[in-house]
């Protein structure tokens, strides 16, 4: 609904109030691995229930609801992944989002504590829980980001393409998906991925077998405490600035400028808000998600980020809004 002209009635309000029912069914399907079990073809209920380690009646309730949502199909009492969802829910697809959805399950319980978070003025999750303190959660986080990046790559990568031979620094690289895909598509660039060691371990595993593996280096580090490596032609900061407050964002941008050669580019990729902070809706909701999980995190407006980039010494800042992507891009010189 348009935020300026939305018309509410009992039906639309109740649909909003029970919206989490749909996400809970999707999360159950992911947790039960129903989509994994169906990735190689249709299964009858008995086989699906056995593989999901659930009772047939209860598995049928979830599976039938997934059919109603359009995520599964049901023909002759056999279930399969719906044709329109197959590229995102089939484990064999290179656009599979199951790891992103699995990480989303870690966040799901936190949203039920939103009002407690507001009253307490602190996150519902211990700081850094997904950034190395819990190895399994860290892996789910990195693989979730990798899964989501694969889905967004067609919209994002054209704006990140190199300008000839370049040394690329991927800061807070996470799984390193975008910079690795750039290196695979452009033989003239070298990439250094900079992040915490437990996160880089995941990135390194994803690089095994890549045709660009010999042009991708891994440098462990924490940009909160350590200087960035220097001598790069392009710096990429993707999906990280929403973890910081405004004061540190300015400091980080200054450090990024120092890491770049004269005339180097800075590519900032993230969720961003309109100047009055009331849209896009997904960015508003993601900002609340950061409030639940980080003591400083929030989604910035593009206007604020541009101002901070200029204060840090960058110029020629331009905003790029890729089609259908929740991420926007600020490019600066």
How many helices? 15
Mean pLDDT level: 93
The run of helices and strands is: HHHEHHEEHHHHHEHEHEEHEHHEE
CATH superfamily caption of the largest domain: Vaccinia Virus protein VP39
Q: Strand order across the biggest sheet?
A: 6-5-4-7-8-10-9
Helix content: 40-55%
The gross shape turns out to be: globular
Number of domains: 2
Key terms:
Arc Repressor Mutant, subunit A, Rossmann fold, 333 residues, 3-stranded antiparallel sheet, alpha/beta
What does this structure look like?
The relative contact order is 0.09. The protein is of the alpha/beta class and 333 residues long. The strands form 2 sheets. It has a 7-stranded mixed sheet with strand order 6-5-4-7-8-10-9, with helices on both faces. It is 48% helix and 16% strand. It has helices at 10-17, 19-31, 34-37, 45-52, 56-68, 86-89, 98-111, 114-120, 129-133, 135-160, 177-185, 197-207, 246-259, 281-293, 302-311; strands at 43-44, 72-75, 78-81, 166-171, 189-195, 216-220, 232-238, 260-270, 318-320, 328-332. The model has no long low-confidence stretch (mean pLDDT 93). The radius of gyration is 21 Å and the shape is globular. The chain folds into 2 domains: 10-95, Arc Repressor Mutant, subunit A, CATH 1.10.10; 151-332, Rossmann fold. The protein is built from 15 helices and 10 strands. The longest helix has 26 residues, at 135-160. Helix 7 packs across helix 10 and helix 10 (135-160) crosses helix 11 (177-185). Helix 13 (246-259) links the parallel strand 7 and strand 8.
């Amino acid at each position: 609904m348009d935020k300026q002209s939305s018309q509410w009635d009992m039906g639309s309000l109740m649909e909003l109030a029970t919206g989490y029912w749909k996400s809970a069914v999707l999360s159950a399907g992911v947790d039960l691995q129903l989509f994994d079990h169906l990735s190689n073809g249709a299964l009858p209920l008995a086989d699906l229930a056995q593989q999901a380690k659930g009772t047939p009646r209860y598995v049928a309730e979830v599976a039938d609801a997934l059919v109603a949502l359009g995520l599964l199909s049901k023909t002759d009492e056999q279930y399969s992944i719906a044709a329109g969802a197959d590229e995102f829910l089939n484990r064999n697809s290179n656009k599979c989002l199951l790891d992103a959805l699995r990480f989303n399950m870690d966040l799901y319980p936190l949203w039920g504590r939103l009002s407690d978070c507001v009253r307490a003025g602190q996150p519902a999750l211990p700081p850094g829980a997904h950034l190395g303190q819990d190895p399994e959660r860290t892996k789910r986080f990195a693989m979730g980001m990798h899964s989501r990046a694969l889905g967004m790559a067609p919209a994002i990568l054209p704006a990140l393409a190199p300008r000839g031979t370049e040394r690329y620094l991927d800061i807070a690289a996470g799984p390193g998906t975008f910079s690795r895909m750039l290196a695979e598509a452009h033989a003239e660039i070298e990439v250094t991925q900079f992040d915490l060691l437990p996160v880089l371990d995941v990135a390194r595993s994803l690089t095994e077998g890549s045709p660009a593996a010999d042009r991708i280096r891994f440098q462990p580090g924490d940009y909160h405490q350590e200087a960035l490596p220097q001598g790069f032609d392009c710096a990429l900061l993707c999906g990280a600035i929403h973890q910081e407050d405004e004061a540190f964002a300015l400091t980080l941008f200054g450090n990024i400028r120092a890491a770049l050669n004269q005339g180097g580019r800075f590519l900032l990729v993230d969720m961003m808000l309109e100047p009055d902070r009331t849209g896009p809706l997904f960015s508003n909701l993601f900002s609340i998600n950061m409030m639940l999980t980080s003591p400083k995190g929030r989604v910035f407006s593009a206007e604020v980020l541009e101002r901070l980039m200029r204060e840090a010494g960058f110029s020629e800042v331009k905003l790029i809004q890729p089609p259908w992507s929740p991420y926007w891009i600020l490019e600066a010189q």
